[in-house]
Design brief:
elongated, single chain, about 260 residues, mainly beta, 16 strands, Yope Regulator, Chain: A, Immunoglobulin-like, about 50% strand
């Protein structure tokens, strides 16, 4: 929970109240500043929420290479310019919103807060605090509904955002489910879920991969069906029970399974 940056003779510690936060919530903490032996001016301190994703590129010879991309999700200025006297100690509180489209970490993806300070007579320092990001409320409802219907997460990835999503970020988080039990077990290959998280609502994409047959393959019949639903963050009808009914009905119509 404690990360330190040495700034010449001045020391800056970014202390988070809690490193575990839900997408869409507020991350709180404070910057602990301790002066050294000389007076120094801190022109600015910024808190930046960042993540990373990777893309695969193929050259003319068919060789693949991986490229890392770092994305700034949010930035918040902390306090005003100030002068730190020798030996002086004080704290500056901060709050920064973790955007709704921040990827859920799932113990697999990296999301962190970087503290950057512009300090006179010193190299511009930075430090990094890892975050554990839990799902936004709407995401959690959908995930619980999928589990209730017998779906199990098979794969989670960050991929380049399709143009149809109109995302402010260049990536989306895709969750692939398989029906390990329940009414859809053996009836389909997988269901992919993508969350488009916007200012006041979510657009949730479902791609249902039906089990193909030799006839559908021979005739070139598309076995993937795509649908989406828009959900307001403050809609009181967004419950696990209602989402089970919606997703169950949606998938059931596609694969020909009627739920009770």
């Amino acid at each position: 929970m404690l990360a330190s940056v040495g700034v010449g003779n001045t020391k800056i510690d970014a202390i988070l109240d809690n490193a575990e936060v839900c997408a869409g919530d507020i991350l709180k903490g404070h910057i602990s500043i301790k002066g050294g032996k000389v007076e120094q001016e801190i022109r600015s301190i910024d808190m930046i929420v960042r993540t990373e994703y990777y893309t695969i590129h193929e050259n003319e010879e068919g060789e693949e290479s991986e490229e890392r991309h770092i994305v700034d999700l949010a930035r918040q200025k902390v306090g005003d310019a100030l002068t730190v006297q020798p030996g002086e100690q004080f704290d500056v509180d901060f709050e920064i919103e973790i955007p709704a489209d921040t990827p859920v970490t799932f113990g697999k993806f990296n999301v962190w807060v970087t503290t950057e300070a512009d300090v006179s007579m010193a190299l511009d320092p930075s430090d990094k605090d890892e975050l554990i990001v839990q799902p936004h409320y709407v995401q959690g409802v959908v995930m619980d509904a999928m589990e209730t219907l017998g779906f199990q997460i098979a794969e989670i990835d960050l991929e380049e955002a399709p143009s149809a999503l109109s995302s402010r970020m260049p990536f989306v988080q895709e969750i692939e489910y398989i029906a390990s039990s329940g009414p859809f077990a053996g009836k389909l290959d997988e269901v992919e879920v993508i969350f488009g998280m916007y200012g006041d609502h979510a657009r949730i994409f479902f791609e249902v991969d039906k089990k193909g047959t030799w006839l559908s393959e021979a005739l070139g019949i598309e076995d993937e069906v795509k649908r989406y639903i828009d959900v307001s963050y403050d809609d009181e009808d967004v419950t696990v029970e209602n989402m089970v009914e919606f997703i169950g009905g949606l998938v059931g119509r596609i694969v020909g399974v009627e739920l009770d």
